[in-house]
Amino acid sequence: MSIGHTLLGLLEGGPRHGYDLKRAFDERFGHDRPLHYGQVYSTMSRLLKNGLVEVDGIEHGGGPERKRYAITDAGITDVEHWLTEPEKPEPYLQSVLYTKVVIALLTGRDAADLLDVQRAEHLRLMRELTQRKRDGDLSDQLICDHALFHLEADLRWLELTAARLGQLAKAVRS
Amino acid sequence: MTPAGSLLIATSLNKTYGHTPALDGADFSIHPGEVVAVMGPSGSGKSTLLHCLAGIVRPDSGTVQYNGRELTAMSDSERSGLRRGEFGFVFQFGQLVPELSCVENVALPLRLNGAKRKEAEARAESWMERLEVADVAHKRPGEVSGGQGQRVAVARSLVTSPRVLFADEPTGALDSLNGERVMELLTEAARESRTAVVLVTHEARVAAYSDREVVVRDGKARDMAGVR
Amino acid sequence: MSGQDAPAQEPRARVSVARWAADLAMGARFAVTGGRESWARTIMTAVGVGLGVVLLLVASSVPTAYQQRNERGDARATLSYASKVKAGPDTLHLSDANTDFRDREIAGIVMAPDGDGSPPSPPGVDRLPAAGEMWVSPALKKLLDSGDGKLLRDRFPYRTAGVIGDSGLSGPNDLSYYAGISPKAFDHVNSDYHLAQWGIQKKGEGEPLNPALLLLIIVGCVVLLLPVLIFIATATRFGGERRDRRLAALRLVGADTHMTRRIAAGESLFGALLGLAVGTGLFLLVRVFIEGVVVWDISFFASDIVPAAPLALAIAVAVPASAVMVTLLALRGIAIEPLGVVRNARPKRRRLWWRLLLPLLGIALLAPLAGGFQATSGGSDTKAYQAAAGAVLLLVGVTALLPWVIEAVVERFGGKGSVPWQLATRRLQLSSGTASRAVSGITVAVAGALALQMLFASVQARDSHSTGQDPRRAQMMANVPVSTGAEARDAFERYRATKGVREMLGVTEGYVSALHHSKDDPSTAPEASLTVADCPSLREVAHIRSCKDGDSFFIDAPPDYYAAGEKFAKPGAQVNLAFDDEGMPDLRHKKLWTIPASIKVVKSRVDPIGSERTGVLATPGAFDVAKLARPHAVAMIRTDPKVPDATEYVRNTSAALSPAMDVMRLSSTAQSDEFTVIRKALFIGATATLLLIGASMIVTTLEQLRERKRLLSVLVAFGTRRTTLSWSVLWQTAVPVVLGLALSIAGGLALGTLLLKMVGQPLAVDWSGLGAMTGIGGGVILLVTLVSLPPLWRMMRPEGLRTE
């Protein structure tokens, strides 16, 4: 999952300190794996280098210096691109997809659209696998079936999420 | 979105049952030989879309064009005739006439069209062979397995060589192995005879047999081919 | 060991009784609480059973009703078996004074006390009517008071003094009266008698029933009641398939097979009990209604219609019991599993032998009775039982054959033919049982009705003999006793002047006697008749070529008319004209007259009422009517067909001439109305049965359709025409009904032939009855189809596809 895109997405709401970013990330996505501050620092410096964020201001205090980051136009485009581009369908995507949905909701983008695009992508792959299964031998079929069942599970999750978008939007924005 | 060369085109269909809107401005189109999956959560209006497309139900507003003819303007008997001759149907369950033998069930659409019994049953048997159920030809539907029964139903839906096959959850009552076999045989047979298939399903693995999918949500149909 | 077991078993038995009760109660609850559909089912069953129960209760009331009626009838009888009553101080002088008003008979008695004593008053009347008074039955009073009765009022020159009480009536619609007349009025009465006591005392059992009639009654009961029983059985199975599915749901939550059976039994028991209640209620209504019904001039008081206690008890027990039995039997063929109802996929082939055995046994019982029920042979009890058993076996056997026949025939169809035909026959192949059950009632009803019709038709043919009357020559004939020729002339004049009389021929008849006593019976003398009339009238009674006033004619009596040597009336012979008060020849005060020697001998001609005359015919110029003792004026009347109620005017004139109103209407055949009515009743009964069966077929068909709502929608989806399915419903009904009718016609003809043999009548097929039955059968097929069509079309709407 792309921590960079996620942090960028969080910044879309307004400039934040690195520490704030970490806290916001952990709150929403880091239930079992909170970010290390170092991860935030290195990610932010990479984003800074790529021109996706800029430093909005530095706060001097007792501890380490605290930079405030703001997203650039290039950064917004990058988030946009990330959200609209469907993930390559593969198992265990839900954490990425979940993050994307939340970011989309937070940034006021169309989360349903995101899900639809992803679902089309899933189905495209499922079609391919189904075709391969048809032409292949038993071992091909079994391998394809395994993938198909996993993809189906994801797809069901997509549908379920789509059906609950309204609920989720309320929860995220509160 | 009404691409040229479409066999069946529906535009802004509206249909309300009582106070429940089932379709709310749905669009749809299908080319000859195309397999289109209609997906969506239950109650979204998938089946209603299928019923409108097949001329079983007249939409409250909107038009359905089949082969350049306005389906919505036809009389009941004209539409019935169309369904007998040019359309085929497979449903989830309860579609075989229990007292007729399987081969008689398959021959039924041909006979409704006025074919002679012998001819009809000969053609029915050849279709049953293609769907690998020739061995149950003379059994009654109650005496065959669910998968066999569904394949008999598919054979029946294809026996008239329809231009459009409407399949409403054709594998809904089957386990995955049987369901897939039915889908394989169905799509294979349909592609060979360039029959367009409108496949209503809520199962992704069934929809994966289609060329493209349309998602119905809140009475609106969204063509996923145009999403990207 | 058994000693130890016994106490342990007792509580178990009690537990199982409690279980039974609980399960039955549960079933009863399902009958009511299962929502609209189970209510509908329960009501259908209750109404069906109720209709059957009404019929049974009415049938069981017939013996009581007849007994009550006959008892009252006996109480007012005027003729006893005892020897002739002589006039005395306490006797009544009376005469029947029956008359008709349009189609209805009015029974009347005119009376006068013979002396100064206290003669008994008739039942239902508290005192004897004085001369010029009459007591009328309530129905007659109503008729007299109505606008229609105006014409009738003129017939009774009496003041209405009171209304006859119920004890003096056999039924509420009796038309009867008792009138008092002056003793002198009896002079104008043909037939009078004296009475010391009203009513007859029954000696022992009374007359034995005519054996043929007994046979009719036995077979009639079987024929009418068997379909009712079958209908009740069908009614308790209404909605059975739906119930089976509910029971399956119960199995899913843990009920065992026995429990489901008991629950089902409880459900139908409840329906049957409700039906019993409905039936009893309807019966009470019908009872009141019956009072207003007059069939065949017979009516009953509601209080007469009381079911015989043992029969009522039998109904109360048998109906619920048979409902439970039928349900349990029906459940035998299916297994109710938790996940649904499993019908035995391939039901056992129906066996032929016992089905064939029943009718054969019936024939074997009936055949030896050939000739056994002729009027001459007394019907013994064993014979009656044998006949009843034979008829029941034959009819039940034919019904039992039906499922086999339907199965055997339907199996041969083999899916050929058009789509509707294929759908219908395949359906019948799969469940021919349902079809044959519905039709089995038809078989009994039609077979029985047909057999009875054959029997009636033959009895009727025998009984509606030619009367010899010729209604083209005269439509009415009156016979009025007159004292003088002038009176006779007067009577004729009055008839001639009556409204609606087109022509009248009058003859005055009297008797002459020989001058010596009879050799066989010295108390009297041989008599011959003397008829005086004008030429046109004489031509009606004799073949006369030329006639003018002053002529007389002689018709020779057939050789066996007189005892040897007593033929005294011949041309030129002297005869005696004097008769005493008792009407006997008076040889002490002879009045002599000589038959003219020139009298022309002629041949007699059958007169309009069919009788032939002998003796002397004289024109008024040849014989003075006034010289005849105790003459009768016989008027042959031609009425004007254009005048409505001409007959009634003539009757009124007769009433003015004689209190006995001796006037009759002529017809060429004596139509025995009774048989016409029985045939009509039979026809109505058979129609009602067929309609009942039609109703249950409609219910079954609708149930079947509702069950396949989804399939119907699917069939519509792939473009099935309405007509295709409509025809299939028609065939589905027609095939079993046609087979049932064919079988019942065969059975009916067989039974009819046997019955005719028993009463010794030649074989005659009642084609019209047969045609009528076939027609009704066809009507039932159409009716069932027509009633099923609207729901069928409603169910053929695509909405049925949305039910997932």
UniProtKB/TrEMBL annotation, chain A:
InterPro entries: Tscrpt_reg_PadR_N. Residues 7-77 form the Transcription regulator PadR N-terminal domain. PANTHER family: NEGATIVE TRANSCRIPTION REGULATOR PADR, TRANSCRIPTIONAL REGULATOR YQJI. This is PadR family transcriptional regulator. The lineage of its organism: Bacteria, Bacillati, Actinomycetota, Actinomycetes, Kitasatosporales.
TrEMBL record, chain B:
CDD domains: ABC_MJ0796_LolCDE_FtsE. Residues 8-227 form the ABC transporter domain. Transmembrane segments: none annotated. Keywords: ATP-binding, Nucleotide-binding, Transport. InterPro entries: AAA+_ATPase, ABC_transporter-like_ATP-bd, ABC_transpr_LolD-like, MacB-like_ATP-bd. The keyword Transport applies. One of its GO terms (molecular function) is ATP binding. SMART domains: AAA. Pfam families: ABC_tran. This is ABC transporter ATP-binding protein. It comes from Streptomyces niphimycinicus.
TrEMBL record, chain C:
Keywords: Cell membrane, Membrane, Transmembrane, Transmembrane helix. Coiled coil: none annotated. PROSITE patterns: PUA (PS50890). The chain crosses the membrane at residues 39-59, 212-236, 269-290, 310-331, 352-373, 385-406, 435-456, 681-702, 729-755, 767-789. Pfam families: FtsX. It is a multi-pass membrane protein. InterPro entries: ABC3_permease_C, Membrane_comp_ABC_pdt. Residues 222-328, 685-797 form the ABC3 transporter permease C-terminal domain. It is found in: Cell membrane. This is ABC transporter permease. It comes from Streptomyces niphimycinicus.
